[in-house]
Amino acid sequence: MKNINPTKTEAWKKLEAHYNETKDQSLKSLFENDSERAAKFTTKWEDFYVDFSKNKITEETKSLLIDLANECGLKEAMDAYFGGEAINKTEGRPVLHTALRASKNADIKVDGENVMNEVEEVKAKIKAFSSEVIQGITKGYTGRNFTDIVNIGIGGSDLGPVMVTEALEFYKNHLNVHFVSNVDGDHVHETIKDLNPETTLFVIVSKSFTTQETLTNATTIRNWFMKTAPEDEVSKHFIAVSSNVAKVKEFGIDENNIFPMWDWVGGRFSLWSAVGLSISLAIGYPNFDALLSGAQKMDEHFKETAFENNIPVLAGLLSVWYNNFYKAESEAVIPYSQYLHRLPAYLQQAVMESNGKSTDRNGDKVDYQTGAIIWGEPGTNSQHAFFQLIHQGTKLIPADFIGYKVSLFDDKDHHYKLMANFFAQTEALLQGKTEDEVREELSSKGMSEDEIKELLPFKLFDGDKPTTSFLIDKLTPESLGKLVAMYEHKIFVQGVIWNIFSYDQWGVELGKQLASTILNDMDSKAIENHDSSTSSLLKVFLG
Ligand code: F6P
Protein backbone atom coordinates (compact mmCIF):
# COMPACT_ATOMS: atom_id res chain seq x y z
CA MET A 1 0.00 0.00 0.00
CA LYS A 2 1.23 3.48 -0.79
CA ASN A 3 2.12 5.69 2.09
CA ILE A 4 1.39 9.27 1.14
CA ASN A 5 0.17 12.29 3.01
CA PRO A 6 -3.01 12.99 0.99
CA THR A 7 -2.69 16.73 1.51
CA LYS A 8 0.59 16.71 -0.41
CA THR A 9 -0.94 15.23 -3.57
CA GLU A 10 -1.61 17.21 -6.73
CA ALA A 11 -5.26 16.25 -6.56
CA TRP A 12 -5.61 17.62 -3.01
CA LYS A 13 -4.18 20.97 -4.06
CA LYS A 14 -6.57 21.10 -6.98
CA LEU A 15 -9.44 20.12 -4.71
CA GLU A 16 -8.55 22.98 -2.37
CA ALA A 17 -8.64 25.47 -5.22
CA HIS A 18 -11.82 23.90 -6.53
CA TYR A 19 -13.42 24.07 -3.08
CA ASN A 20 -12.65 27.79 -2.84
CA GLU A 21 -14.17 28.38 -6.26
CA THR A 22 -17.32 26.34 -5.72
CA LYS A 23 -18.12 26.46 -2.02
CA ASP A 24 -20.66 29.24 -2.42
CA GLN A 25 -22.54 27.55 -5.24
CA SER A 26 -25.78 26.35 -3.75
CA LEU A 27 -27.13 22.90 -4.36
CA LYS A 28 -30.29 24.55 -5.58
CA SER A 29 -28.40 26.44 -8.27
CA LEU A 30 -26.60 23.25 -9.32
CA PHE A 31 -30.00 21.67 -9.96
CA GLU A 32 -31.38 24.78 -11.65
CA ASN A 33 -28.42 24.90 -14.03
CA ASP A 34 -28.50 21.27 -15.04
CA SER A 35 -31.70 19.39 -15.72
CA GLU A 36 -29.72 16.15 -16.08
CA ARG A 37 -28.08 16.44 -12.68
CA ALA A 38 -30.01 13.62 -10.96
CA ALA A 39 -29.21 11.18 -13.77
CA LYS A 40 -25.56 12.23 -13.88
CA PHE A 41 -24.96 11.56 -10.23
CA THR A 42 -27.05 8.44 -9.74
CA THR A 43 -25.67 4.92 -9.73
CA LYS A 44 -28.04 2.04 -10.41
CA TRP A 45 -26.76 -1.33 -9.41
CA GLU A 46 -28.81 -4.51 -8.94
CA ASP A 47 -31.61 -3.56 -6.50
CA PHE A 48 -29.86 -0.35 -5.39
CA TYR A 49 -30.60 3.14 -6.70
CA VAL A 50 -28.05 5.46 -5.14
CA ASP A 51 -28.58 9.15 -5.74
CA PHE A 52 -25.52 11.26 -4.97
CA SER A 53 -26.92 14.30 -6.79
CA LYS A 54 -28.03 16.15 -3.65
CA ASN A 55 -24.37 16.52 -2.64
CA LYS A 56 -22.23 19.59 -2.98
CA ILE A 57 -20.30 18.29 -5.95
CA THR A 58 -19.92 18.95 -9.63
CA GLU A 59 -18.52 16.68 -12.30
CA GLU A 60 -15.19 18.34 -11.69
CA THR A 61 -15.35 17.58 -7.95
CA LYS A 62 -16.05 13.96 -8.74
CA SER A 63 -13.22 13.72 -11.18
CA LEU A 64 -10.74 15.43 -8.80
CA LEU A 65 -11.79 13.12 -5.97
CA ILE A 66 -11.18 10.15 -8.24
CA ASP A 67 -7.77 11.60 -9.11
CA LEU A 68 -7.10 11.76 -5.37
CA ALA A 69 -8.07 8.09 -5.01
CA ASN A 70 -5.72 7.21 -7.86
CA GLU A 71 -2.85 9.25 -6.49
CA CYS A 72 -3.30 7.63 -3.08
CA GLY A 73 -3.13 4.19 -4.73
CA LEU A 74 -6.68 3.04 -4.01
CA LYS A 75 -6.64 0.34 -6.69
CA GLU A 76 -3.38 -1.21 -5.42
CA ALA A 77 -4.70 -0.96 -1.85
CA MET A 78 -7.87 -2.83 -2.89
CA ASP A 79 -5.75 -5.59 -4.42
CA ALA A 80 -3.78 -5.84 -1.16
CA TYR A 81 -7.01 -5.92 0.89
CA PHE A 82 -8.73 -8.64 -1.14
CA GLY A 83 -5.46 -10.45 -1.76
CA GLY A 84 -4.83 -11.13 1.93
CA GLU A 85 -1.77 -8.92 2.44
CA ALA A 86 -1.15 -7.97 6.07
CA ILE A 87 -2.67 -4.51 5.68
CA ASN A 88 -3.44 -4.45 9.43
CA LYS A 89 0.24 -3.71 9.88
CA THR A 90 0.37 -2.81 13.56
CA GLU A 91 -1.11 -6.21 14.41
CA GLY A 92 0.60 -7.98 11.50
CA ARG A 93 -2.65 -9.40 10.09
CA PRO A 94 -4.51 -9.54 6.82
CA VAL A 95 -8.05 -8.15 6.73
CA LEU A 96 -10.14 -10.82 5.11
CA HIS A 97 -13.76 -10.58 6.19
CA THR A 98 -14.39 -10.68 2.44
CA ALA A 99 -13.15 -14.32 2.41
CA LEU A 100 -16.05 -15.24 4.70
CA ARG A 101 -18.51 -14.56 1.91
CA ALA A 102 -16.32 -15.43 -1.09
CA SER A 103 -17.24 -18.26 -3.43
CA LYS A 104 -16.08 -21.61 -2.11
CA ASN A 105 -13.86 -22.05 -5.16
CA ALA A 106 -11.94 -18.86 -4.44
CA ASP A 107 -8.23 -19.10 -3.70
CA ILE A 108 -7.55 -16.75 -0.80
CA LYS A 109 -4.26 -17.37 0.91
CA VAL A 110 -3.02 -16.52 4.39
CA ASP A 111 0.59 -17.56 5.02
CA GLY A 112 0.53 -19.52 1.77
CA GLU A 113 -2.56 -21.60 2.73
CA ASN A 114 -5.93 -21.27 1.04
CA VAL A 115 -8.36 -20.39 3.85
CA MET A 116 -11.52 -21.31 1.95
CA ASN A 117 -11.60 -24.91 3.21
CA GLU A 118 -11.64 -23.76 6.81
CA VAL A 119 -14.23 -21.09 6.01
CA GLU A 120 -16.48 -23.69 4.37
CA GLU A 121 -16.03 -26.10 7.28
CA VAL A 122 -17.15 -23.48 9.78
CA LYS A 123 -20.09 -22.55 7.58
CA ALA A 124 -21.13 -26.20 7.46
CA LYS A 125 -20.91 -26.33 11.25
CA ILE A 126 -23.04 -23.17 11.60
CA LYS A 127 -25.57 -24.60 9.17
CA ALA A 128 -25.84 -27.98 10.88
CA PHE A 129 -25.95 -26.56 14.39
CA SER A 130 -28.51 -23.87 13.70
CA SER A 131 -30.76 -26.21 11.71
CA GLU A 132 -30.69 -28.80 14.50
CA VAL A 133 -31.55 -26.25 17.18
CA ILE A 134 -34.33 -24.71 15.08
CA GLN A 135 -35.82 -28.12 14.29
CA GLY A 136 -35.59 -29.25 17.89
CA ILE A 137 -33.14 -32.07 17.13
CA THR A 138 -30.62 -30.58 19.54
CA LYS A 139 -32.34 -30.24 22.88
CA GLY A 140 -31.69 -28.88 26.36
CA TYR A 141 -30.54 -31.04 29.25
CA THR A 142 -34.06 -32.11 30.28
CA GLY A 143 -34.98 -33.09 26.74
CA ARG A 144 -37.01 -29.96 26.00
CA ASN A 145 -36.58 -27.93 22.81
CA PHE A 146 -34.67 -24.66 22.97
CA THR A 147 -36.91 -21.61 22.96
CA ASP A 148 -34.38 -18.87 23.76
CA ILE A 149 -30.86 -17.98 22.67
CA VAL A 150 -28.65 -15.54 24.60
CA ASN A 151 -25.71 -14.04 22.74
CA ILE A 152 -23.05 -12.94 25.25
CA GLY A 153 -20.48 -10.62 23.65
CA ILE A 154 -19.59 -6.96 23.25
CA GLY A 155 -18.43 -4.60 20.48
CA GLY A 156 -18.06 -6.53 17.25
CA SER A 157 -19.17 -9.69 19.04
CA ASP A 158 -22.52 -8.07 19.75
CA LEU A 159 -23.33 -5.09 17.54
CA GLY A 160 -23.29 -6.93 14.18
CA PRO A 161 -25.44 -9.83 15.40
CA VAL A 162 -27.93 -7.50 17.17
CA MET A 163 -28.15 -5.11 14.26
CA VAL A 164 -28.79 -7.89 11.72
CA THR A 165 -31.16 -9.86 13.94
CA GLU A 166 -33.24 -6.73 14.47
CA ALA A 167 -33.02 -5.73 10.81
CA LEU A 168 -34.22 -9.16 9.68
CA GLU A 169 -36.84 -9.68 12.36
CA PHE A 170 -39.44 -10.21 9.63
CA TYR A 171 -37.55 -13.36 8.59
CA LYS A 172 -37.25 -14.71 12.14
CA ASN A 173 -38.33 -18.13 13.33
CA HIS A 174 -39.76 -19.13 16.72
CA LEU A 175 -36.51 -18.73 18.69
CA ASN A 176 -36.29 -15.67 20.93
CA VAL A 177 -32.84 -14.17 20.68
CA HIS A 178 -31.47 -11.97 23.48
CA PHE A 179 -28.21 -10.04 23.69
CA VAL A 180 -26.18 -9.38 26.79
CA SER A 181 -23.23 -7.07 26.26
CA ASN A 182 -22.75 -4.50 29.01
CA VAL A 183 -20.88 -5.50 32.16
CA ASP A 184 -23.73 -3.71 33.93
CA GLY A 185 -25.20 -6.49 36.10
CA ASP A 186 -28.66 -5.00 35.61
CA HIS A 187 -28.38 -5.78 31.91
CA VAL A 188 -27.58 -9.45 32.59
CA HIS A 189 -30.10 -9.99 35.38
CA GLU A 190 -32.85 -8.19 33.49
CA THR A 191 -32.21 -10.43 30.48
CA ILE A 192 -32.14 -13.75 32.29
CA LYS A 193 -34.77 -13.10 34.94
CA ASP A 194 -37.63 -14.65 32.96
CA LEU A 195 -35.61 -17.27 31.12
CA ASN A 196 -35.86 -20.97 31.75
CA PRO A 197 -32.40 -22.58 31.98
CA GLU A 198 -33.83 -25.83 30.59
CA THR A 199 -34.76 -24.22 27.29
CA THR A 200 -32.08 -21.54 26.87
CA LEU A 201 -28.92 -21.82 24.82
CA PHE A 202 -26.02 -19.47 25.55
CA VAL A 203 -23.62 -18.40 22.83
CA ILE A 204 -20.48 -16.78 24.23
CA VAL A 205 -18.86 -14.72 21.51
CA SER A 206 -15.40 -13.31 22.06
CA LYS A 207 -12.62 -13.36 19.52
CA SER A 208 -9.98 -12.90 22.22
CA PHE A 209 -11.89 -14.61 25.03
CA THR A 210 -10.22 -12.17 27.40
CA THR A 211 -12.79 -9.37 27.30
CA GLN A 212 -13.77 -8.41 30.85
CA GLU A 213 -17.42 -7.71 30.08
CA THR A 214 -18.04 -10.94 28.22
CA LEU A 215 -16.23 -13.20 30.65
CA THR A 216 -17.96 -11.57 33.63
CA ASN A 217 -21.38 -11.92 32.02
CA ALA A 218 -20.69 -15.49 30.91
CA THR A 219 -19.56 -16.45 34.42
CA THR A 220 -22.63 -14.89 36.04
CA ILE A 221 -24.89 -16.69 33.61
CA ARG A 222 -23.12 -20.01 34.03
CA ASN A 223 -23.49 -19.71 37.83
CA TRP A 224 -27.18 -18.87 37.41
CA PHE A 225 -27.56 -21.90 35.13
CA MET A 226 -25.88 -24.21 37.61
CA LYS A 227 -28.25 -23.16 40.37
CA THR A 228 -30.84 -25.40 38.73
CA ALA A 229 -28.88 -27.60 36.34
CA PRO A 230 -26.18 -30.14 37.12
CA GLU A 231 -22.66 -28.89 36.27
CA ASP A 232 -22.05 -31.56 33.65
CA GLU A 233 -25.00 -30.24 31.63
CA VAL A 234 -23.19 -26.95 30.96
CA SER A 235 -21.84 -28.41 27.74
CA LYS A 236 -25.38 -28.82 26.34
CA HIS A 237 -26.23 -25.17 26.92
CA PHE A 238 -23.01 -23.17 26.45
CA ILE A 239 -21.21 -22.79 23.19
CA ALA A 240 -18.45 -20.39 22.24
CA VAL A 241 -17.26 -18.51 19.19
CA SER A 242 -13.61 -17.56 19.53
CA SER A 243 -10.14 -17.69 18.06
CA ASN A 244 -8.69 -18.45 21.49
CA VAL A 245 -9.47 -22.15 21.90
CA ALA A 246 -7.23 -22.59 24.96
CA LYS A 247 -9.06 -19.89 26.92
CA VAL A 248 -12.47 -21.23 25.91
CA LYS A 249 -11.55 -24.69 27.18
CA GLU A 250 -10.23 -23.14 30.40
CA PHE A 251 -13.69 -21.61 30.85
CA GLY A 252 -15.11 -25.13 30.75
CA ILE A 253 -16.61 -25.29 27.31
CA ASP A 254 -16.60 -28.56 25.45
CA GLU A 255 -14.21 -28.58 22.49
CA ASN A 256 -17.04 -29.70 20.16
CA ASN A 257 -18.97 -26.63 21.16
CA ILE A 258 -16.32 -24.19 19.91
CA PHE A 259 -16.88 -22.37 16.66
CA PRO A 260 -13.54 -21.03 15.47
CA MET A 261 -12.78 -17.63 14.07
CA TRP A 262 -9.55 -16.21 12.82
CA ASP A 263 -7.06 -13.46 13.48
CA TRP A 264 -7.59 -12.21 9.96
CA VAL A 265 -11.18 -11.20 10.71
CA GLY A 266 -11.53 -7.99 12.71
CA GLY A 267 -14.17 -8.03 15.48
CA ARG A 268 -16.18 -5.19 13.95
CA PHE A 269 -16.28 -6.98 10.58
CA SER A 270 -17.02 -10.44 11.94
CA LEU A 271 -20.77 -10.85 11.66
CA TRP A 272 -20.20 -12.94 8.51
CA SER A 273 -18.25 -15.54 10.51
CA ALA A 274 -19.44 -17.82 13.31
CA VAL A 275 -19.92 -14.57 15.26
CA GLY A 276 -23.14 -14.50 13.25
CA LEU A 277 -24.28 -17.81 14.75
CA SER A 278 -27.10 -16.12 16.65
CA ILE A 279 -28.20 -14.58 13.32
CA SER A 280 -28.30 -18.02 11.72
CA LEU A 281 -30.21 -19.36 14.73
CA ALA A 282 -32.70 -16.48 14.53
CA ILE A 283 -33.40 -16.49 10.80
CA GLY A 284 -32.17 -19.90 9.66
CA TYR A 285 -29.04 -20.74 7.70
CA PRO A 286 -30.52 -20.14 4.20
CA ASN A 287 -31.24 -16.54 5.16
CA PHE A 288 -27.80 -16.17 6.77
CA ASP A 289 -26.30 -17.49 3.55
CA ALA A 290 -28.32 -14.96 1.52
CA LEU A 291 -26.90 -12.18 3.74
CA LEU A 292 -23.41 -13.42 2.90
CA SER A 293 -24.18 -13.66 -0.77
CA GLY A 294 -25.42 -10.05 -0.80
CA ALA A 295 -22.16 -8.95 0.79
CA GLN A 296 -20.23 -10.95 -1.79
CA LYS A 297 -22.09 -9.18 -4.60
CA MET A 298 -21.11 -5.83 -3.11
CA ASP A 299 -17.49 -7.06 -2.86
CA GLU A 300 -17.55 -7.83 -6.59
CA HIS A 301 -19.14 -4.48 -7.39
CA PHE A 302 -16.44 -2.73 -5.36
CA LYS A 303 -13.61 -4.71 -6.99
CA GLU A 304 -14.85 -4.61 -10.56
CA THR A 305 -16.63 -1.30 -11.09
CA ALA A 306 -14.91 1.81 -12.40
CA PHE A 307 -14.54 4.39 -9.64
CA GLU A 308 -17.01 6.72 -11.46
CA ASN A 309 -19.87 4.30 -10.72
CA ASN A 310 -18.50 2.50 -7.71
CA ILE A 311 -20.86 3.00 -4.76
CA PRO A 312 -18.43 2.49 -1.85
CA VAL A 313 -15.69 4.46 -3.63
CA LEU A 314 -17.99 7.43 -4.27
CA ALA A 315 -19.42 7.27 -0.75
CA GLY A 316 -15.92 7.20 0.78
CA LEU A 317 -14.62 10.04 -1.38
CA LEU A 318 -17.64 12.19 -0.64
CA SER A 319 -17.03 11.71 3.03
CA VAL A 320 -13.42 12.90 2.58
CA TRP A 321 -14.71 15.90 0.64
CA TYR A 322 -17.02 16.98 3.47
CA ASN A 323 -14.68 16.05 6.28
CA ASN A 324 -11.52 17.67 4.95
CA PHE A 325 -12.73 20.50 2.76
CA TYR A 326 -16.10 21.51 4.23
CA LYS A 327 -14.79 20.61 7.72
CA ALA A 328 -17.94 18.66 8.51
CA GLU A 329 -17.44 16.85 11.79
CA SER A 330 -20.15 14.27 11.64
CA GLU A 331 -22.33 12.26 9.29
CA ALA A 332 -25.86 11.13 9.99
CA VAL A 333 -27.32 7.81 8.92
CA ILE A 334 -31.12 7.89 8.72
CA PRO A 335 -32.79 4.62 7.78
CA TYR A 336 -36.45 4.93 6.83
CA SER A 337 -37.10 1.48 8.23
CA GLN A 338 -37.64 0.80 11.89
CA TYR A 339 -36.00 -2.59 11.35
CA LEU A 340 -32.68 -0.81 10.82
CA HIS A 341 -32.80 0.98 14.17
CA ARG A 342 -29.45 -0.47 15.29
CA LEU A 343 -27.64 0.32 12.03
CA PRO A 344 -26.25 3.68 13.25
CA ALA A 345 -24.93 2.05 16.46
CA TYR A 346 -23.35 -0.75 14.44
CA LEU A 347 -21.76 1.79 12.09
CA GLN A 348 -20.46 3.82 15.00
CA GLN A 349 -18.16 0.96 15.91
CA ALA A 350 -17.33 -0.01 12.34
CA VAL A 351 -16.51 3.53 11.25
CA MET A 352 -15.19 5.18 14.41
CA GLU A 353 -13.12 2.28 15.73
CA SER A 354 -11.61 1.96 12.26
CA ASN A 355 -10.94 5.52 11.23
CA GLY A 356 -10.75 7.34 14.56
CA LYS A 357 -6.95 7.58 14.26
CA SER A 358 -4.50 10.48 14.41
CA THR A 359 -1.28 8.65 13.52
CA ASP A 360 -0.49 8.07 9.86
CA ARG A 361 1.10 5.01 8.31
CA ASN A 362 4.57 6.44 8.96
CA GLY A 363 3.84 6.71 12.66
CA ASP A 364 3.58 10.51 12.41
CA LYS A 365 0.75 12.67 13.74
CA VAL A 366 -1.62 13.60 10.94
CA ASP A 367 -2.09 17.30 10.23
CA TYR A 368 -5.54 16.84 8.71
CA GLN A 369 -8.87 15.52 9.89
CA THR A 370 -9.70 11.80 9.80
CA GLY A 371 -12.72 9.73 10.91
CA ALA A 372 -16.11 11.35 10.95
CA ILE A 373 -18.48 11.02 13.91
CA ILE A 374 -21.41 8.81 12.97
CA TRP A 375 -24.85 9.10 14.46
CA GLY A 376 -28.46 8.60 13.54
CA GLU A 377 -31.85 7.12 14.24
CA PRO A 378 -34.61 5.92 11.99
CA GLY A 379 -36.81 8.38 10.17
CA THR A 380 -39.49 9.49 10.84
CA ASN A 381 -38.69 9.40 14.58
CA SER A 382 -35.49 11.39 14.09
CA GLN A 383 -37.45 14.13 12.30
CA HIS A 384 -39.26 14.73 15.58
CA ALA A 385 -36.01 14.71 17.54
CA PHE A 386 -32.81 16.12 16.02
CA PHE A 387 -33.75 17.19 12.49
CA GLN A 388 -34.21 20.74 13.78
CA LEU A 389 -30.42 20.97 14.13
CA ILE A 390 -29.75 19.50 10.70
CA HIS A 391 -32.17 21.99 9.09
CA GLN A 392 -31.43 25.16 11.02
CA GLY A 393 -28.33 24.53 13.16
CA THR A 394 -24.87 25.92 12.45
CA LYS A 395 -23.22 22.64 11.49
CA LEU A 396 -23.01 20.95 8.13
CA ILE A 397 -24.15 17.34 8.56
CA PRO A 398 -24.14 15.22 5.41
CA ALA A 399 -26.74 12.51 5.81
CA ASP A 400 -27.39 9.12 4.25
CA PHE A 401 -31.07 8.39 3.75
CA ILE A 402 -31.84 4.68 3.37
CA GLY A 403 -35.28 3.51 2.27
CA TYR A 404 -37.06 0.70 0.49
CA LYS A 405 -39.45 0.67 -2.45
CA VAL A 406 -41.81 -1.73 -0.68
CA SER A 407 -42.52 -2.52 2.92
CA LEU A 408 -42.46 -6.04 4.25
CA PHE A 409 -46.07 -6.12 5.45
CA ASP A 410 -47.06 -4.36 2.25
CA ASP A 411 -49.09 -1.68 4.00
CA LYS A 412 -49.09 0.92 1.24
CA ASP A 413 -50.75 3.62 3.29
CA HIS A 414 -47.99 3.55 5.90
CA HIS A 415 -45.24 3.03 3.40
CA TYR A 416 -46.28 5.96 1.24
CA LYS A 417 -46.41 8.18 4.32
CA LEU A 418 -43.00 6.93 5.47
CA MET A 419 -41.35 7.42 2.11
CA ALA A 420 -43.09 10.75 1.47
CA ASN A 421 -41.22 11.92 4.56
CA PHE A 422 -37.92 10.51 3.22
CA PHE A 423 -38.33 12.36 -0.09
CA ALA A 424 -39.66 15.50 1.58
CA GLN A 425 -36.77 15.73 4.00
CA THR A 426 -34.09 15.36 1.34
CA GLU A 427 -35.88 17.95 -0.76
CA ALA A 428 -36.34 20.34 2.17
CA LEU A 429 -32.68 19.98 3.14
CA LEU A 430 -31.68 20.81 -0.41
CA GLN A 431 -34.15 23.64 -1.13
CA GLY A 432 -34.58 25.35 2.19
CA LYS A 433 -37.15 28.12 2.41
CA THR A 434 -36.48 31.65 1.17
CA GLU A 435 -37.58 34.96 2.62
CA ASP A 436 -40.16 35.39 -0.16
CA GLU A 437 -41.59 31.96 0.51
CA VAL A 438 -41.86 32.58 4.24
CA ARG A 439 -43.39 36.00 3.67
CA GLU A 440 -45.98 34.58 1.28
CA GLU A 441 -46.85 31.77 3.67
CA LEU A 442 -47.30 34.08 6.64
CA SER A 443 -49.28 36.68 4.79
CA SER A 444 -51.63 34.00 3.44
CA LYS A 445 -52.35 33.24 7.09
CA GLY A 446 -53.47 36.84 7.52
CA MET A 447 -50.47 38.11 9.50
CA SER A 448 -49.70 41.80 9.56
CA GLU A 449 -46.44 43.18 8.12
CA ASP A 450 -45.10 43.80 11.64
CA GLU A 451 -45.89 40.28 12.76
CA ILE A 452 -44.26 38.87 9.62
CA LYS A 453 -41.12 40.94 10.16
CA GLU A 454 -40.75 39.66 13.69
CA LEU A 455 -41.21 35.99 12.89
CA LEU A 456 -39.49 35.84 9.52
CA PRO A 457 -35.84 35.24 10.58
CA PHE A 458 -36.83 32.21 12.61
CA LYS A 459 -38.80 30.61 9.81
CA LEU A 460 -36.03 30.76 7.22
CA PHE A 461 -34.28 27.60 6.05
CA ASP A 462 -30.92 28.06 4.32
CA GLY A 463 -31.20 24.65 2.66
CA ASP A 464 -28.04 23.52 0.88
CA LYS A 465 -27.70 20.54 3.21
CA PRO A 466 -26.25 17.49 1.47
CA THR A 467 -27.88 14.06 1.45
CA THR A 468 -27.29 10.78 -0.34
CA SER A 469 -30.36 8.65 -1.01
CA PHE A 470 -30.15 4.87 -1.01
CA LEU A 471 -33.40 3.58 -2.47
CA ILE A 472 -33.37 -0.21 -2.33
CA ASP A 473 -36.04 -2.55 -3.70
CA LYS A 474 -36.80 -4.41 -0.49
CA LEU A 475 -35.28 -5.21 2.89
CA THR A 476 -34.10 -8.79 2.43
CA PRO A 477 -31.14 -10.69 3.89
CA GLU A 478 -29.37 -10.23 0.57
CA SER A 479 -29.96 -6.49 0.26
CA LEU A 480 -28.91 -6.00 3.88
CA GLY A 481 -25.67 -7.88 3.16
CA LYS A 482 -25.01 -5.51 0.26
CA LEU A 483 -25.69 -2.43 2.36
CA VAL A 484 -23.43 -3.47 5.25
CA ALA A 485 -20.61 -4.47 2.89
CA MET A 486 -21.00 -1.11 1.15
CA TYR A 487 -20.25 0.67 4.44
CA GLU A 488 -17.33 -1.68 5.16
CA HIS A 489 -15.72 -0.75 1.86
CA LYS A 490 -16.48 2.93 2.33
CA ILE A 491 -14.48 2.73 5.57
CA PHE A 492 -11.60 1.11 3.69
CA VAL A 493 -11.60 3.82 1.01
CA GLN A 494 -11.47 6.57 3.64
CA GLY A 495 -8.62 4.88 5.51
CA VAL A 496 -6.59 4.58 2.31
CA ILE A 497 -7.00 8.26 1.50
CA TRP A 498 -6.27 9.38 5.07
CA ASN A 499 -3.17 7.16 5.12
CA ILE A 500 -4.09 5.56 8.42
CA PHE A 501 -4.35 1.97 9.61
CA SER A 502 -8.09 1.30 9.73
CA TYR A 503 -7.94 -2.20 11.16
CA ASP A 504 -6.34 -1.88 14.59
CA GLN A 505 -7.97 -0.32 17.67
CA TRP A 506 -5.21 0.59 20.11
CA GLY A 507 -7.31 3.49 21.31
CA VAL A 508 -9.53 1.20 23.35
CA GLU A 509 -6.66 -0.24 25.39
CA LEU A 510 -5.85 2.56 27.83
CA GLY A 511 -9.34 2.65 29.33
CA LYS A 512 -9.30 -1.15 29.71
CA GLN A 513 -5.93 -1.05 31.52
CA LEU A 514 -7.00 1.75 33.86
CA ALA A 515 -10.31 0.03 34.62
CA SER A 516 -8.43 -3.03 35.78
CA THR A 517 -6.08 -0.93 37.97
CA ILE A 518 -9.00 0.98 39.44
CA LEU A 519 -10.92 -2.23 40.15
CA ASN A 520 -7.94 -3.49 42.16
CA ASP A 521 -7.68 -0.13 43.91
CA MET A 522 -11.37 -0.29 44.77
CA ASP A 523 -10.95 -3.76 46.25
CA SER A 524 -7.96 -2.71 48.33
CA LYS A 525 -9.38 0.76 49.05
CA ALA A 526 -6.11 2.28 47.76
CA ILE A 527 -7.72 5.24 46.05
CA GLU A 528 -5.13 7.95 46.57
CA ASN A 529 -2.92 7.13 43.57
CA HIS A 530 -5.08 9.00 41.11
CA ASP A 531 -5.68 12.59 40.11
CA SER A 532 -7.70 14.42 42.76
CA SER A 533 -10.92 14.28 40.74
CA THR A 534 -10.76 10.50 40.25
CA SER A 535 -9.71 9.91 43.87
CA SER A 536 -12.65 11.99 45.13
CA LEU A 537 -15.08 10.18 42.87
CA LEU A 538 -13.79 6.85 44.16
CA LYS A 539 -14.08 8.05 47.74
CA VAL A 540 -17.68 9.14 47.27
CA PHE A 541 -18.52 5.91 45.45
CA LEU A 542 -16.98 3.66 48.08
CA GLY A 543 -18.65 5.70 50.84
O1 F6P B 1 -13.56 -2.56 21.91
C1 F6P B 1 -12.42 -3.25 21.58
C2 F6P B 1 -12.71 -4.62 21.01
O2 F6P B 1 -11.51 -5.28 20.86
C3 F6P B 1 -13.49 -4.57 19.70
O3 F6P B 1 -12.69 -4.31 18.60
C4 F6P B 1 -14.11 -5.92 19.69
O4 F6P B 1 -15.13 -5.99 18.76
C5 F6P B 1 -14.58 -6.00 21.13
O5 F6P B 1 -13.55 -5.38 21.87
C6 F6P B 1 -14.83 -7.39 21.65
O6 F6P B 1 -13.69 -8.18 21.59
P1 F6P B 1 -13.75 -9.73 21.75
O7 F6P B 1 -14.56 -10.30 20.63
O8 F6P B 1 -12.33 -10.19 21.69
O9 F6P B 1 -14.38 -10.05 23.08
UniProtKB/TrEMBL annotation:
EC number: 5.3.1.9
Keyword Isomerase set for record: yes
Reaction(s) this enzyme catalyzes, per UniProt: alpha-D-glucose 6-phosphate = beta-D-fructose 6-phosphate
Entries under InterPro entries matching the protein: G6P_Isomerase (IPR001672), G6P_Isomerase_C (IPR023096), Phosphoglucose_isomerase_CS (IPR018189), SIS_dom_sf (IPR046348), SIS_PGI_1 (IPR035476), SIS_PGI_2 (IPR035482)
Keyword NAD carried by entry: no
Gene Ontology molecular function: carbohydrate derivative binding; glucose-6-phosphate isomerase activity; monosaccharide binding
GO biological process: gluconeogenesis; glucose 6-phosphate metabolic process; glycolytic process
Catalytic center residues: E353, H384, K512
Biochemical pathway: Carbohydrate biosynthesis; gluconeogenesis; Carbohydrate degradation; glycolysis; D-glyceraldehyde 3-phosphate and glycerone phosphate from D-glucose: step 2/4
GO CC, one annotated term: cytosol
First-tier enzyme category under EC: isomerase
Pfam families attached to this UniProt entry: PGI
Keyword list, A-Z: Cytoplasm, Gluconeogenesis, Glycolysis, Isomerase
Subcellular location, record wording: Cytoplasm
Function summary: Catalyzes the reversible isomerization of glucose-6-phosphate to fructose-6-phosphate.
Family the UniProt entry places it in: Belongs to the GPI family.
Protein name according to UniProt: Glucose-6-phosphate isomerase
